[in-house]
Each structure stands twice: as structure tokens, then as C-alpha cells.
Amino acid sequence: MADTPESKQIHYNLRYQVYCDEMGFEDKDKFPDQLEFDEWDEHSVHFMVRHRYTGQWLGALRLVYQNQAVFPFEAKCVPDQPISAQQYAQSIEISRLCVLREARRFAPRGFSHGNNGEETAKEVSNVRYLHSIKNQSRSIMWGLYRAAVLYSVQNGIKQWYILVTPSLAYAVKKEGFEMQQVGGACDHRGQRIPYALDVDHILLNPLWQKDYKLEYRRYSELTERSASKRQRA
Predict the structure, then answer these.
(1) Which of 2, 107, 187, 219 is the most exposed place for a label (fewest CB within 10 A)?
(2) pTM of structure
(3) Helices 219-232 and 5-15: crossing angle, nearest 10°?
């Protein structure tokens, strides 16, 4: 969790690299400091993931709380049913999910190469990498979702909203997560569809029983630990 000004700048820079440099979704001229952020970040909780062995930051995601009974996705498409005051109070929107292109270069230790050229997985830390390196970004995404669902449970969040491409929706459903479409498709950087997900159902997914077992940490805990090591040295 990015809980310090320094860590939020890392988060915003990751977004800049993906949304401005790589994809061109945002105008980089608006962010001369290479920190992509908007008005919703004041109402958000920010998460990041880094490579265990290199320390390289690889991906990010934010959880957006409602602001004056509005979520970001409502500016792009109209929900089929009005969102109640209780739903606003107990929901967040998953937003700005991004994984750097360079993430594919950071192969976790424990991979071996099979005869077919694909990487086979061994258990590494708390995550078993079941995919080839070319799909490692998917593992990063599940790790970010895991942090988000743990935070949600700890803070009384019952429901997620998410505005995604059909391909990402397919990938999430394929992993056994139930997604309820809550509005029609809209044109926002290509086709996007709004969905709602139940937090309790997300938490029960078998994926968490075998992988992603560690809880998220706060960035401030990492800096405190580094300072403690320097003092001991």
C-alpha cells in the first residue's frame, strides 16, 4: 500500500509509464513531472507490486471511494439500476490497473525450461507461477487484486465496481470470479463494460487458497525496516 507521499509518487509514475508512454491513453504534456494522477486520487487507496529480488516496481492499481455519490465509471456509462446510498457507502471502484511492459523481463527464480521452450513453474515464495513468463503480468494482476480484496474486507467494503475491456472481463471470469454486468458497453479507449463483484465471493475463490497467501504491506513498513537495518549496520 502506498501510504506515504514518496510511495504515491512511485504509483503515479508507474501509471505515467503505462497510460502516457506505452499506451498513449493520457496526454503526457499534462504531466511534466511524469506523475499521472487525477481528481479521484484524493479519494483513493493505492497499491503497487515490486519484484522480490530486484526491487523493481512493476505494477499498480487503485481503489476509488465514491465522491458525492458518484464513482468514476459513471462518467463513462450509466448504470442499469440507481446505486443506493448504502451501496455507495460499502463499495469502491477498481481503477488504473497497470503492469509495466518490462515486467515480463523479470523472471522469478525457480523457473526451468521444458523441451517445448515454455517455462514450467516451481513454487516461489507465496505464489506458484503456473504460466509462462509471457503471462507473468497476469500473476501480478492477481496479486494486486488479492491486496485489494484484503483491504476491502478489513474496511467494510462489500462490493467492487470495475470498468474493463471484454478480454479482461473474460480473464477474470475464467478464473472463477463472478461478475455482474451493471450497465451497457461504452466507448472509452475502446469498448469498456461496467461490472460489479461481491467481495465475499472474491475472497472465497480457490486461487487464494493455493497462491498469494501473504498479506499486503505498507510502503512505510519497508522504509522503517530499511532504516532499522542501517542502524544495526
Answers:
(1) 187
(2) 0.84
(3) 120
Residue type, 204: L
Residue pLDDT, tens place only, 81-126 = 999 999 999 999 999 999 998 775 654 443 333 333 333 434 444 4
Distance (Å, whole) CA 12 – CA 61: 10
CB 113 within 8 A of CB 182: no
The label of the residue with cell 462489500 reads: 158
Residues facing residue 205 across a β-bridge: none
Give CA–CA dist 124/108, Å, rounded.
7
Query: Which grid coordinates are listed for 77?
Result: 456509462
Q: Any idea which residue has 503505462 for its cell?
A: 18
- Give the DSSP per-residue string, 6-29: HHHHHHHHHHIIIIIIIS--S-GG
Q: Which residues pair with 123 in a beta bridge?
A: 128
Contact, 204 vs 167, CB < 8 A?
no
Nearest to 181 by CA among 202, 201, 197: 197
Phi, psi at residue 35, to the nearest 5°? Answer: -125, 105
SS3 assignment, position 39: helix
C-alpha cell at 212: 498469494
Tell me the Ramachandran region of residue 182: left when phi exceeds 0, alpha when psi lies from -120 to 50, beta otherwise.
alpha
- Based on DSSP, count helices (H) and strands (E) in the chain, helices before strands: 7, 11
Closest by CA to 172, choosing from 214, 205, 148, 204, is 205
